[in-house]
Specification:
By secondary structure, this protein is α/β, with parallel strands linked by helices. It contains 15 helices and 17 strands. The structure holds zinc ion.
Length: 469
């Protein structure tokens, strides 16, 4: 839009010059006043062709109940005034412009959007054709195709109330960046994406390729970015940042040659150099302890996190992004689930900072990505953590682990207007979150009365500027 405007101004200047020249050459005896009048009149016509800024949008959301999950409180009959996509007033009465649109949610409970702190929106492995083996997914599905699928997965997440997703790799050649930029440009609706780019790991990443495939065909890339030396680590972090990562994801111990504490400190320092945090995929206790010692921001997956690790995480304020898979007819085992729940109880008892996260990167017939994700409530309910605290974990903690809390998430004056609405009260009954009937993102309604309304998000142009990286 800025570019278009600049061109228009240039055009207008040219027209003024041409008109003046016309007066000078063709009608030299005409009085100066008349000539100036022609310039002004025609100039005004040219000006009328300029694109104009859309009128300020004002919306009032009338909330029957409004939840503040950080405080664990609920207030009745609150109004939220939204102007130009941001919240400008909240209260039992607000002064709104006379032409403001009113959205009546007086029968519903309004709350901030939910956060999945670990997902892979550009990865969907499935039974057919790859037998749920994602090593084949990335061979068979192009990055371009996966980016389009990511848009669909993002909308499915938004429809289930997830307004923020931390997307941690396995997204081909930066499909996650494409998704984030597409949403930020305003071309498609979707959650706010905090993406990692390519997962960085010791040679091979999480794959076990044959020598000929790894050495002759570099088949590990782009699912994983090999970095085995100090210089390679620095370069890999910089590559991800250059190509749009907002958090750095490291495979700490995916191989029998885990990173050393010194290696891991290099990741932390290089990420910090660009103002970013480091998330560590851990699958051994040694790896978890090294990542904690090195100053990692979060540990992904809970497998190796025992009482000792939890105590160290609590002491250093490291986030637990546990990806706690529930036992369902389509996934998991009772044994694994019991372990998962025991780990959650232990983390909670040790006051570890916890986030809601899923690692949901698979297709379950008949379920959207959002439905697969919200079903992780089964794990949180089984943990015995009070509903009020789980809701805080799914919202407030989510904004914090995504490093967004001061810029987005809470329903607070000055922040972007992201909010959802449900029937019932999720402070008491988490299952109320399973049926999200209203979703607003950046002040624009994405879902109302249980029906998605994506039209308002779709634009052909660069709504927020072409240069978003
Ligand atoms: Zn994952």
């Amino acid at each position: 839009m800025i570019v278009a405007r600049r061109r228009a101004v240039r055009r207008e200047g040219g027209d003024r010059i041409r008109l003046t020249a016309l007066c000078d050459v063709m009608i030299p005896r005409m009085k100066t006043l008349s000539c100036a009048l022609i310039v002004v009149v025609l100039g005004s016509f040219v000006e009328a062709q300029q694109p104009v800024a859309p009128p300020a949008r004002a919306t009032v959301v009338r909330a029957g109940r409004l939840i503040d999950p950080a405080a664990g409180t609920i207030a009745s009959n609150q109004s939220i005034l939204i102007e130009n996509g941001r919240i400008s007033a909240i209260g039992s009465t607000v002064t709104a412009p006379s032409n403001a649109e009113v959205i009546d949610l007086s029968r519903l409970t309004v709350l901030p959007g939910l956060v999945d702190a670990h997902n892979h929106l550009a990865l969907t492995y499935k039974t057919d054709p790859e037998n749920n083996y994602y090593y084949l997914t990335y061979v068979m599905d192009s990055t371009a195709l996966r980016a389009i699928q990511a848009v669909s997965n993002g909308m499915q997440m938004l429809s289930s109330g997830f307004t923020v997703v931390r997307d941690l790799g396995n997204n081909g050649n930066y499909a996650d960046t494409a998704l984030r930029v597409g949403i930020e440009q305003g071309w498609v609706p979707g959650p706010t994406i905090v993406n990692s780019g390519i997962i960085i790991g010791g040679m091979g990443g999480q794959f076990f390729p044959t020598p000929e495939m790894a050495k002759d065909h570099n088949i590990v890339y782009p699912e994983y970015l090999d970095a085995d030396t100090h210089d390679e680590i620095v370069k890999a972090v910089r590559q991800n940042i250059l190509f749009g990562a907002k958090v750095i994801k490291v495979c700490v111990d995916c191989k029998p040659y885990p990173y050393t504490v010194e290696d891991l400190k290099t990741f932390v320092a290089e990420a910090a150099n660009a103002g970013m945090k480091v998330a560590g995929h851990v699958q051994t206790k040694v790896g978890a302890l090294r990542a904690i010692e090195a100053g990692f921001w979060s540990l992904e997956h809970a497998g190796p996190l025992d009482d000792e690790v939890h105590k160290k995480m609590a002491e250093k304020g490291v986030w637990r992004v546990g990806t706690e898979t529930p036992f369902t007819p389509y996934r998991g085992t009772q044994q694994a689930f019991d372990r998962t729940v025991a780990g959650m109880k232990n983390a909670w008892a040790n006051h570890v900072k916890m986030a809601f996260s899923t690692d949901a990167d698979y297709y379950i017939p008949g379920m959207t990505r959002g439905e697969v994700v919200i079903n992780f409530l089964l794990s949180w309910k089984a943990s015995g953590i009070p509903a009020k605290e789980v809701l805080k974990i799914m919202t407030t903690n989510g904004y914090e682990v995504c490093d967004l809390a001061s810029r987005r998430g809470p329903i607070t004056v000055g922040l972007p207007a992201d909010m959802i609405a449900v029937a019932g009260n999720p402070l008491e009954d988490l299952d109320a979150l399973r049926t999200v009937s209203f979703v607003m993102k950046d002040g624009t309604v994405f879902k109302k009365d249980g029906v998605m309304t994506p039209e308002a998000f779709l634009h052909a142009g660069p709504v927020n500027g072409w240069r978003i990286r």
